[in-house]
């Protein structure tokens, strides 16, 4: 089966996203590959002359090369940001769903926030889920089941501390401030001419 240039670009893009490359970098790689494919098409060569016979191996090798060019040092920062967002979601969710003015934080809640932060920081998010083989899905389901059982057995005892509604609002205030500032700040693409 002969793949069109658009098929090649789509498959490479999904492979690069699966490899957890940043989207801006993936867009650059897609543009560069599009140029190479257009050049090959203009010269009368097939797309296989550019990418080879094994498209996944080509995309994986290119992703590994790009990853080797830039060391990944964002994980501790991402871990902290994901833990913060997980804690904020847990607190807000408890206030909204339980209609309570106070949230009791128990060890199970802390473990759930830690698991959320670790999964979100160390996996390529939802992009990888669609490409996982059955064995990984089964391991993930078994692991989550074991974790939920452990959290259930820990239960609501002991209460580590309680957070009032105003404490949750104060905890979420920095996130709201950052979101508002990022919306008000002009993007780097916008240029103002006087």
Automatic annotation (TrEMBL):
Keywords associated with the record: Membrane, Transmembrane, Transmembrane helix
Transmembrane segments: 79-99, 105-125, 137-157, 163-181
Record protein name field: Uncharacterized protein
């Amino acid at each position: 089966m002969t793949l069109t240039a658009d098929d090649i670009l789509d498959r490479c893009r999904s492979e690069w996203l699966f490899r957890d490359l940043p989207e801006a970098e993936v867009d650059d790689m897609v543009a560069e590959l599009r140029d190479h494919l257009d050049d090959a098409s203009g010269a009368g060569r097939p797309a296989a002359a550019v990418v080879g016979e094994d498209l996944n191996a080509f995309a994986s090798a290119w992703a590994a090369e790009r990853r080797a060019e830039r060391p990944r040092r964002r994980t501790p920062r991402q871990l902290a940001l994901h833990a913060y967002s997980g804690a904020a979601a847990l607190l807000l969710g408890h206030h909204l769903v339980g209609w309570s003015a106070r949230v009791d934080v128990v060890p199970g809640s802390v473990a759930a926030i830690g698991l959320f932060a670790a999964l979100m920081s160390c996996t390529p998010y939802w992009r990888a889920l669609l490409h996982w083989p059955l064995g990984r899905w089964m391991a993930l389901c078994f692991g989550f089941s074991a974790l939920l059982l452990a959290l259930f057995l820990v239960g609501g005892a002991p209460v580590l501390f309680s957070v009032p509604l105003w404490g949750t609002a104060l905890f979420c205030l920095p996130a709201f401030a950052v979101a508002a500032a990022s919306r008000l700040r002009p993007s780097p693409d916008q240029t103002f001419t006087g």
